[in-house]
Structure formats: structure tokens, C-alpha cells
Amino acid sequence: MWVEKAQRGAGVCYAGPNMQNGILLAAVDLGSNSYRLEIGRHDHGQIQRTEYIKETVRQGNGLDEARNLTPEAMQRGWDCLARFAERLAGFKRAQVRAVATQTLREARNRDEFLAKARQVLGFPIDVISGREEARLIYQGVAHLLPQSAERRLVVDIGGRSTELILGQSLAAKVTESYRVGSVAWSMKYFPQGQFTVQAFESAEIAAKAVLDEALDAYRPETWDVAYGSSGTIGAVADVLAAAGGPAGTITRDGLNWLYERLLEARSADRLRMDGLKDDRRPVVGGGVSVLRAVFDLLGIEEMQAAQGALRHGVLYDLLDREQGETDVRSSTVQRLAAKFGADPAQAQRVGKVACQLLRQLRAGESAAELARHVRKLGWAAQLHEVGSAISHSDYHKHGAYILDNADAPGFAQPELHRLGLLVLGHRGKLRKLEADFEDSLFVHQLLCLRLAVILCHARRDPDLKGLQIRAAGQQVTLGLRPEWTKAFPQSAHLLREETVAWQKTPWALLLA
Q1: How many C-beta atoms surround the C-beta of residue 296 within 10 A?
Q2: Is CATH 3.30.420.40 the classification given to domain 24-128+312-317?
Q3: Could you give phi then psi for residue 35, rounded to 5 degrees?
Q4: pLDDT by residue (tens digit) across 439-462?
Q5: pLDDT for 26-63, tens place per residue?
Q6: Domain ranges of the chain
């Protein structure tokens, strides 16, 4: 599969290398029904599949009444990730991204599962929001379709959530996620796997009740072609094709024909159909009921089964992140800064100084690693004053709240929270931060941001001639030329206060 990548805006502080041609990239999708591993080779902005592994983990039916994952469900996930980890041996962190969806968004004990899951897999695992999942699904679908000006409706029925997206070319314009899916609906409305008219009617009514708010945004006149992504829709398309229907197409008549076949079979155990895999039979009732509800609610007569899915979107997003200039997160940061009226000149000024300090402080890192760390610090600088739109008093706290609760395409929830911590900690007392001060990268980024804000306090470009910063363990020394403190007494005073602030942490800041 050969596809083109999107182009987007750049961040303020980043100047990193492009992703090397020929490098392998991997996406891990921890879905509610299945875990998937997709590996592809990068070649001039395109990705060609080299390997694909899917395992039916069915973690979505492992949530108990208190919304905790059962020990058995967690073990199934860990066992699968251990097998994926063997295949990913030798991959570097920048080559792999793992994302988790609705089941782990819901699970109250997800931190317990994720702590071991990350250790087993050997890579971070991002729990992404529903809207971010929808955006990535669209990227996966769009990159594997011919580029055109058609307006697209993309539907993805997963195990515990359904994503609806309106988009054109490579741009997702409307994204939403709804808590309805094949595993959840099969458990609730077909608990014994029995197919009855009443069960389907109850399941479809309930699905329409959840999806009803989609009516306004996804009206038939807002899209030209409907595409379906991932498990349920792919399975339905395979069954209809095996029965003589057009390949890769689901029609309303075909969907009604399948519904009748399910009623004739009376149960999932008795269901035997060409094109239907065994691992899909236990959840086909819930999946078909949700798909019928989507067709009815949105007035769909025909849907094309797309080749792209969440995992493909993750691969291209990973590529964009490494390209730097096409990282959607940079565009998101720019949008948030503009929306909340942050002073762009001051943000640029603080970002330039903070990034300059970080480059000195972490000069021993590889160019690629340093570029990533500098870029993220640049985002924090761009956003450090967004809270001022709410109130100048404690604006750093308002800014952190905004970031913890904003829709931020491209960001996983943990990295957005980390960005919020930098914004929260850029001024004021350090002990208020619920942060890991053993994380030297975070501390270095935070210190550089705080120092930059101090050096730019007069809202003009500071004199940095002769300024040097270096670290030895948890001690950081800021060197200033002798006449600097006399020339800038207020800045010198603020820096001395900053050394006192760090005394209440495991770190020390010294002036020399």
C-alpha cells in the first residue's frame, strides 16, 4: 500500500531531521475487541506494509460492573503485548507508537494494567481521547484512498465505541466518538448469543438513542461518499461479498439480507456463513445492530469498506511527528494560543530563550532526541500565557486547566497533561506541582522555561551574551558574565529568588 502524507504547519522551536527513508515504523492498537500490530517501511513520505498481526483479546468484555478490568482480561492483554514485544525487539522508541482506546478510557484500574503493559511491551502506551481516535481513523482511511475533493463520511464501529468523521482529502473536519460498539452491545443485548427480533429492536433503539446527537452534524447533504473502517464493517462487507454482492460494498438491502440470516441462525453458536471468521461470530449481533442503526439514522444507502484504519493513522501520525514540520500537534498549539489570545511576540521570545537553554543543558543527546525535547518545550512556551484570557491572577493555573480539558488533536492525554504541568510550573512555587522530580528531562524543560520567563520579564529580547548553563547530576549552574548583574539588577534579583525556589526540591540551581 502506497499513500501520500499530509502537510501541516510548523512549531516555533523545532528544526529536526526528516525521518530516514527505509526505516521501519510500527503501530500498536489496543482495541476493545482486538489488539493489532502494523509494521511498515518509510519511503519518501509513503509507508508500505511489511507485517500485520492481529489477536482477538476481547478486553472490552472484561470490564466488571464497577468498570474494572478483570484479572483475566488484563492477563490476556499482557500476554498479547509480550508476543508483540518479541517482534518489536530492536525498534527504537521513535519508531513505535502504541495507542489504547475506549476500554482503557473507561477502565477505573487502567493505571494498574498500563504500568505492566508498558513494561511488557517495552514502549509507552497512550490512552487517546475519543475525538483523537476519530482523527487518527480518518487519517488512516484517507491516506489509503485516492486523493479527491469528495466529501467523506467515515464510520468506525469498534468494540466499545463508534467514531463518526466528516472530512475532505486528508483533513478531518468534524470528529466525534460515541460509547456504542460491537462488544458492548453484544454483551448487553445478545448476552447468550441469541438472535431474536426483539433483541435487535432493543439494540438498535438503544444505539440510535446514543447516536441521535449526530443527526445535525452528519446530515446526508454534508457528505458525498460513506466509508466504513475496521472490524465490524470489514466483516459485514466480507460476508456480503462471499454471498455474491459487490466487493467492498455494503448496501441497505445487503444489510437487511444479513439481518435475516442472523435471525434464521437464531444464535451465534449456530451461525455459519462464508466470509465470517470465527473470532467475529460472538460479536456480530452487536456489530450488525449498531451498523443498522447508523444506516437508518444517517440515511446511508451504500457504504464502501475502507482499507485504512486506526493503526494506519497512527503510523502516518508517527511519521508526521518525526518530520516536525508536519506534526499536527504544532498546529493544535498554534490554534490554542490564538484562540486564547496569548501574546505571540512574548511566546516567541520566551520560546527562543528556553530552547536555547535546553540545547545547552542537554547537549550530549542525539540530534533527533534533542529536537523532540526542544519542540515540546517550544509548545509550552507558546501556551504559557493562555490562562490570561480567563484572569491574569493565577493565569498559570488557568492555563494548566485549559490544557487538561481542551480538545487537542494530535495529543494523547498524558502528554497534554505533561504540557499542562510545564505551564502550571512556569511560575510560582514548585512544591505545588504533582510532578516527578526524578524525571530529569521534565525538570530540565521546566527549569529552562522558568528561567526564560524571568529573563524575558520586561517583554523584550534579553541580553544573553556569555550566558551558560550546565548540569552535574541534580545540580544546575547558570553562568553569567560579571557585569551582567549590574546591567540588569531586576533580572538578577529574580534569578536569586529562583535559586531559593529550587531549594525546596531535590534539585539545586546555582548562579555563577
Answers
A1: 15
A2: yes
A3: -100, 140
A4: 999 999 999 999 999 999 999 999
A5: 999 999 989 999 999 988 778 999 999 999 998 988 99
A6: 24-128+312-317, 145-305, 324-462
